[in-house]
């Protein structure tokens, strides 16, 4: 099995940034989900409620060597925003039910994000210390930590499973008398790692992976939400893939696709790396 794709998301819910190679450590891929938009109360604002985040393009020196500072944000109709890592003390923020800390990016960054999203109540924050965040009990070990992903540092998705899901979506459409849909891209699931070469949904049985010599623990499947129904280009929503996942991949009230991982080492991942699974 091979690693066929690597995706970094410097801004949580921002545009996906594919890379050829990236360093990985205990907190995940370097620079992944280290910046986040919050509302006036300090709670996460994601593309679920602010679809326009998908059109905010975040880059770091890892995703674009031309970026000379910690972060560059681009959005239609706005000048590029260039930021250094902010100084100062962390302030309380909330990621779903988790109370965390993050450093405010500052008034200039807030003004830019508000213009990009058309909201006057949002702010940009940065994760200065991922070790402050512990992970879900029962699926993690002491010392496991992360920046601002939903649950665990890394997610992996299978191209074989995506092809099988595409077949199911086509069957569902034809059963409902609908026009045959265009295949959905695997990017709908915003996985950090994309692999190919195993059977569809073989990942349900994985307990660990070694990718490019870096070991990962498989913790649990990823429960999918309505964000997967948003087209990142048009920002329109539809029934798929949740409609079909709920039919074929519903377990304990959750629709499942892809797996959560925790790195058990550090190293460099490169597209084409061999993937060994247990």
TrEMBL record:
Domain MOSC: 128-278
InterPro entries attached to this UniProt entry: MoCF_Sase_C, MOCOS_middle, Pyrv_Knase-like_insert_dom_sf
Organism (species): Nocardioides potassii
Name of this chain's protein: MOSC domain-containing protein
Alphabetical list of PROSITE patterns matching this protein: MOSC
Higher taxonomy: Bacteria, Bacillati, Actinomycetota, Actinomycetes, Propionibacteriales
SUPFAM superfamilies named in the record: MOSC N-terminal domain-like, PK beta-barrel domain-like
Pfam families: MOSC, MOSC_N
Highest taxon of the lineage: Bacteria
Entry's transmembrane regions: none
């Amino acid at each position: 099995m091979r690693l066929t794709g690597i995706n970094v998301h410097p801004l949580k819910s921002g545009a996906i940034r594919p890379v050829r190679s990236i360093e990985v450590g205990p907190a995940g891929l370097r620079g992944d989900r280290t910046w986040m938009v919050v509302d006036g109360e300090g709670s996460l604002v994601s593309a679920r409620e602010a679809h326009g985040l998908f059109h905010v393009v975040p880059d770091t020196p890892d995703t674009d060597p031309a970026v000379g500072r910690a972060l560059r944000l681009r959005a239609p109709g706005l000048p590029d925003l260039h930021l250094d890592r902010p100084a100062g003390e962390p302030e309380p923020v909330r990621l779903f039910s988790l109370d965390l800390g993050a450093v405010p990016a500052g008034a200039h960054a807030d003004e830019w994000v508000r213009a990009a999203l058309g909201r006057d109540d949002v702010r940009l924050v940065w994760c200065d210390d991922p070790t402050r965040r512990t992970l879900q009990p029962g699926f993690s070990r002491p010392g496991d930590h992360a920046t601002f992903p939903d649950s665990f540092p890394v997610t992996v998705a299978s191209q074989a499973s995506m092809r099988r899901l595409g077949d199911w979506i086509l069957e569902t459409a034809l059963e409902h008398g609908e026009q045959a849909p265009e295949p959905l891209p695997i990017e709908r699931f915003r996985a950090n790692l994309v692999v190919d070469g195993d059977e569809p949904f073989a990942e349900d049985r994985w307990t660990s992976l070694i990718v490019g010599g870096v070991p990962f623990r498989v913790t649990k499947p990823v429960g999918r939400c309505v964000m997967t129904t948003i087209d990142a280009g048009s920002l329109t929503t539809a029934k798929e893939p949740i409609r079909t996942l709920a039919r074929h991949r519903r377990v304990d009230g959750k629709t499942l696709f892809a797996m959560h991982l925790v790195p058990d080492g550090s190293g460099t991942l490169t597209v084409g790396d061999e993937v060994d699974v247990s």
